[in-house]
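Question (not urgent): is this output format expected?
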Amino acid sequence: MAKTDRCPICGVAVKPENLVRHLNDIHPRHPDTPRLKEQLKSEPGRTTPKLGPRPIHIRRWHVLVVVVIVLVGVGVSALVSSRPSTFPCVTGPLVYHWHARLSIVSASTPVTIPGNVGLGFNCAEPLHTHDESGQIHVETDVNRLYSIGDFFSIWGKSFGSPTQMQVNGTTVSPNPGVIFYDQETIALTYASFG
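Got this back:
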């Protein structure tokens, strides 16, 4: 049987390491409690030692995971910021916000204009796409007009030599200087678009 002590106030059997706590919990207002607590605390084995916080064990794979996450973040940041913007990023209130539609056909095959052209991690250029629909967003905070050649520069493609160009259904001479206006449709046909 485990060793027990008797409470000097009420006579209840209590484990030696719990007697101080018993006095605190059961007899907090008794006149002898402070003196008894001090006397018992000075005796070895009467109080349970307080455990400190658990030590942190850093394992080699923890360090490896953190290093990989940091390297991936630095790499993505470098890739995103490595391509210089063709135009200054749009930062202020918009002077205008237009939408134009661009379609390209190469050797009778439609060309998909990718989404997020002109949109970087921390930069939106004045001409950009959000999806693959061919809708060009013209959002600018400066008072100027933008051409189809400007979009091709942002896209990183050469305007090249289209065999046909239509603006709002009217055939015009192919020219990268054609301005994007709101609700305008521009169709380009190439023998081979690269």
